[in-house]
Amino acid sequence: MKKLKIGVIGCGRISVMHLDSIRQSEFSELVAVCDIKENLAKTASQKYGVPYYTDYNKMLETEELDAVHLCLPHYIHTSVAIDAFKKGVNVLSEKPMSIKYEDAVEAVRIAEECGVKYGVIFQCRYNTPSQLVKKRILDGRLGKVKCGRTTLTWYRPDNFYDDSDWKGTWEKEGGGVIIDQAIHSIDLANWMIDSIPVEIQSSLHNRNHECMIVEDSAEGLIKYENGALLSFFAMNNYFVDEPIEIRLLCENGNAIFSYDKAVIDYVDGTSETVYNNTDDCANYSGGKDYWGFKHNIQIDQFYRSLLGLEELEISGKEALKIQKIICDIYKNNDCKIK
User: Fold this and answer.
1) What are the angstrom distances between the C-alpha of 44 and each of 32, 33, 73, 285, 291?
2) 3-state SS record for the chain
């Protein structure tokens, strides 16, 4: 089988999840890495034994790449993706697609125009608990979601933002706890509900981070075309990272799940419990537990789609759904952040 030639643009913290997945995949060959910070590019180059670049356009022009992975600050995701599309290179981008919905829409349009594939990382959809709950909604055993709730209580100290030249800013990160952390749990609930949002209410605050101006606390309500309601609460002032919790009240039962466990209680008195299976995950040489372990599962699915073996599951078009929700949460904020 042909091995896809892959490059990675951005060698910061999250890149290890991509680099290790690429090296361990049966479908891919890592051929180059790039970062404008030469020390990061050089470190990745030495660790993985490939050439490095500090100019991604030069890498795109020099290497015969089938795809690039984008592990970059939020605000340049779409601009770099578009440059790759125009050179005929497929793209797998870290979330979020962008900090502006309009930019994400334009990126999807250009990818389609250039005839290349555009994938966006939402690896938590591939967790065993998420997969079971989605399956039970689709096969009718749970039935459709009537209402849901997502809760995220994590901890991000000031140095989490002080140590970064882009996090905690409107112009580069696009927000705080919603766009960076809660995007995954809100995406999971929205994926389960599978309807069009018709109203989004939100209240955002910065309650405990003097080092930044974006929100560290958020709550709100999403109303859907099919009548479902989704409440969300997120904050990163808790001093520990508790497991996220998603609760769904469905036609034929209730589901409570996190990244690690799902419990489904049906109206007929039966129940199901499942834990996250990591036997098929890559051996990552770093990373955070709250990132989960399923990057390699989504990455391999992206590669199989490039090879024509199956359809791309989380495309740019699919990711536009959560992108619009996140942008509307900020747009509809009824509180002034100090």
Assistant:
1) 9, 7, 18, 12, 20
2) CCCEEEEEECCCCCHHHHHHHHHHCCCEEEEEEECCCHHHHHHHHHHHCCCEECCHHHHHHHCCCCEEEECCCHHHHHHHHHHHHHCCCEEEECCCCCCCHHHHHHHHHHHHHHCCCEEECCHHHHCHHHHHHHHHHHCCCCCCEEEEEEEEECECCHHHHHCCCCCCCCCCCCCCHHHHHHHHHHHHHHHHHCCCEEEEEEEEECCCCCCCCCCCEEEEEEEECCCCEEEEEEECECCCCCCCEEEEEECCEEEEECCCEEEEEECCCCEEEEECCCCCCCCCCCCCHHHCCCHHHHHHHHHHHHCCCCCCCCEHHHHHHHHHHHHHHHHCECCCCC
Q: How far apart are CA 63 and CA 80, in angstroms?
A: 16
pLDDT score of 337: 63
* Tens-digit pLDDT profile for residues 79-117: 999 999 999 999 999 999 999 999 999 999 999 999 999
- Alpha carbon distance 121, 194 (integer Å): 18
Q: Are 1 and 307 in contact (CB under 8 A)?
A: yes
Neighbours of 71 (CB within 10 A): 25
Which residues are CB-contacts of 60 (< 8 A; sequence separation ≥ 6)? 7, 68, 83, 84, 87, 89
The gap between the terminal CA atoms of the chain, to the nearest Å, is 56
Instruction: Specify whether the CB–CB gap between 306 and 174 falls below 8 A.
Output: no
pLDDT score recorded for residue 130: 98
- CA separation for the pair 64, 54 (Å, rounded): 17
Distance CA 154, CA 131 (A): 24
Q: For the chain, which ranges sit under pLDDT 70? A: 336-338
